[in-house]
Amino acid sequence: MPKGRIRIKLKSYDYRLIDDTCQKLVDTAVRTGASVLGPIPLPTKTEVFVVTKASFGDKDAREQFGLKTHKRLIDILNPTNQTIDSLMHLELAAGVEVEVKM
């Protein structure tokens, strides 16, 4: 039986996808007998892109586009072999980046 913890970091542009994925991970871990801390919301990174509307002329005519990256953190404490196996075979949504550290 492995000791320690599994730390899972999730990133996504859509907060609904990341919340659904977090719920799947937490349900799987609790069902297999591990204790879970999280999901902990990390600060959202916002990127703003400014584009001029015209190729020349009025520089005050601009458009702004934004891109938000939502992040979550989940710690699974005292995972069992069944927990690790079920997390490996879990189907997750496309569009969610998952980073796992043991």
UniProtKB/TrEMBL annotation:
<dbReference type="GO" id="GO:0003735">
    <property type="term" value="F:structural constituent of ribosome"/>
</dbReference>
<dbReference type="GO" id="GO:1990904">
    <property type="term" value="C:ribonucleoprotein complex"/>
</dbReference>
<dbReference type="InterPro" id="IPR018268">
    <property type="entry name" value="Ribosomal_uS10_CS"/>
</dbReference>
<keyword id="KW-0689">Ribosomal protein</keyword>
<dbReference type="GO" id="GO:0005840">
    <property type="term" value="C:ribosome"/>
</dbReference>
<comment type="similarity">
    <text>Belongs to the universal ribosomal protein uS10 family.</text>
</comment>
<protein>
    <recommendedName>
        <fullName>Small ribosomal subunit protein uS10</fullName>
    </recommendedName>
</protein>
<dbReference type="GO" id="GO:0000049">
    <property type="term" value="F:tRNA binding"/>
</dbReference>
<comment type="function">
    <text>Involved in the binding of tRNA to the ribosomes.</text>
</comment>
<feature type="domain" description="Small ribosomal subunit protein uS10">
    <location>
        <begin position="7"/>
        <end position="101"/>
    </location>
</feature>
<dbReference type="InterPro" id="IPR036838">
    <property type="entry name" value="Ribosomal_uS10_dom_sf"/>
</dbReference>
<dbReference type="InterPro" id="IPR027486">
    <property type="entry name" value="Ribosomal_uS10_dom"/>
</dbReference>
<keyword id="KW-0687">Ribonucleoprotein</keyword>
<dbReference type="Pfam" id="PF00338">
    <property type="entry name" value="Ribosomal_S10"/>
</dbReference>
<dbReference type="GO" id="GO:0006412">
    <property type="term" value="P:translation"/>
</dbReference>
<comment type="subunit">
    <text>Part of the 30S ribosomal subunit.</text>
</comment>
<dbReference type="InterPro" id="IPR001848">
    <property type="entry name" value="Ribosomal_uS10"/>
</dbReference>
